[in-house]
Amino acid sequence: MKIGLLVMFSFIQFSLEMVNRDEKIIREMLAQQQACWNKGDLSCFMEPYWHSDSLKFIGSKGITWGWKNTRERYEKTYPDQIAMGQLSFELLVIDRINEDNYFVVGKWFLEREIGNLQGHFSLLWRKIEGRWLIVADHSS
Question: If you classify domain 2-139 with CATH, what class do you get?
Fold first, then answer.
């Protein structure tokens, strides 16, 4: 009986550590994305996005499919550092769906000389080949 309880508590502890580690990784990746944006480094900002034609970006103008198309959309909308401004995030929800998927909701803020912008986002993060990646982004 005692061994069974010990095994159960060990498993629960291990599971909590994995959840905490995964959430920490996702938070760190979002912080890195913010830092990349603020340096004007779009390549770095796009790194956590799934490099796939199946990536979904949903914005005010509809859905954009694929990593390449999403990057081109960002390049067109934010052609230079003035348009990009300084990005900050406020994370509201980080929900673990299962061991390979997280749902993240937050607010984004752009401080810019040409006018500030803000909105909300929801991200679906998926662990693919051992790496956390954004597979769907709905930003408005």
Answer: alpha beta
